[in-house]
Amino acid sequence: MSCSNGEPTPQPQPPAPTELWLYVGTYTSGGSEGIYLCRLDLATGALQKLTVTPNVAEPSYLALDPKGRYLYAVNELVEYEGKASGAVSAFAINAQSRELTFINRQSSQGGAPCYLEVDATGAYVLVANYVGGNVAVLPILQDGGLGAAADVKQHQGTQAGQEPHAHQIRLDAANQYALAPDLGLDKIMIYRFDARQGKLTPGEPASFSTRAKAGPRHLAYHPNGNLAFGINELDSTLIAFSYDKERGALTELQTVSTLPEGYTGTSYCADIHVSPDGKFLYGSNRGHDSIVVFAIDSAGKLTLVEHVTGGINWPRNFAIDPTGAYLLVANQKGNTVVTFRRDTQTGRLTPVGQPLDIPAPTCLLVVPPSV
Can you tell me the distance from the alpha carbon of 30 to that of 359, in angstroms, rounded to the nearest whole number? Predict the structure, then answer.
């Protein structure tokens, strides 16, 4: 349809969301009841706890399928069904209430699964097993449940006396490469991902090596697809990379500390995220108990903006909501989720609302308004 002057008729825009759903993964060994469903008020930043899905062992990391119909949770166990493995649980999401219904559970093929994500086609769950030192691909069945692993890649070798400890596996925007930081090996493993067969094959190069004892933990991609950022748990640093989308390769641009100059206490990095507009990078420090904020320039270089400490206690995980208005922090030892309003011009954070009491929160999954 077009106007009389030949211009396309403007299509009505969907109303801006006023609230978003939030799932909170936890450690049930830390006193929680399971996976919590909450609501985020986009006008005020207030959080409201609605319900909990009980009887889910150690659901420490969560992921959605692309259409928002199913939720997947790791069961961060070191033994499952008598074997040295954890598991992954699948849930159906009620379209109205957003409550979860258990579908099934599958072995993760390695101990202590700590991260998972769903590929862009919604056909596979990729999971990283920390104690197992491997990554696995689980097929998603027609009902949203999980099949037995289609592929497992065991990381090999030692580094500075450490065994392999896969901490994450992240697909790029093209769904072609999966990058897996291995904290024990001081490497980011690079795999080509076959979305038709659910197979991982080593890339060329097959890995990127950090400096010794850095402890690579998590990665975040820039919205432009040409940059990536890694956070290192053990030496409290961030690495800015250029990202070669054709080969999945990383080239280091810059390494910066996540801690204030002169800080000498013990601290371990945890999570990392880029703001939706690509202008700012955020990382979490456990020990210093802070969120560090960097500005990202057009070349991918980082400039420190601030360290935010108020109300933060062992920030295991954090999330930026899809609108970019708020940053939410899971205080694993503080047993709260806290909300900060983001200044989209400066990247700075200001606390808003009251902390939400949830025992041992470890993962925050904000549901995009589109699903």
Answer: 7
Q: How far apart are CA 77 and CA 291, in angstroms?
A: 28
Burial class (CB in 10 A: 0-12, 13-18, 19+), 187: buried
Structure tokens at 50: 């609605």
The total of other beta-carbon atoms located within 10 Å of residue 281's CB is 27
**28 three-state secondary structure:** helix
> Which residues fall within 8 angstroms of residue 262, CB to CB, at 6 or more apart?
none
Q: Around Cβ 352, how many Cβ atoms within 10 Å? A: 16
pLDDT in tens, 148-200: 999 999 999 988 778 999 999 999 999 999 999 999 999 999 999 999 999 99
Closest CA to 242 of 229, 256, 258, 255: 229
Determine contact, residues 289/304, Cβ cutoff 8 Å: no
Share of the chain above pLDDT 90, in %: 93
pLDDT score of 8 more than 70: no
0.90 exceeded by pTM: yes
Sort 8 into a burial class: Cβ within 10 Å, 0-12 / 13-18 / 19+: exposed
* Bridge partners (DSSP) listed for residue 129: 113, 134
Q: How many CA atoms lie within 13 A of 286 on its CB side?
A: 21
DSSP 252-263: EEEEEESS-TT-
C-alpha 230 chain-centroid distance: 12
pLDDT tens per residue across span 254-263: 999 999 999 9
Whether the CB-CB separation of 338 and 40 falls below 8 Å is answered with no
CA atoms within 13 A on the CB side of 269: 29
pLDDT of residue 11: 66
For the chain, give the number of residues. 371
Identity of the amino acid at 208: F
Pairing of strands 177-182, 237-244: unpaired
Which residue carries 């000498």 as its tokens? Answer: 264
- Confidence band (pLDDT; 50, 70, 90) for 2? very low
Confidence of residue 1 (pLDDT cuts 50, 70, 90): very low
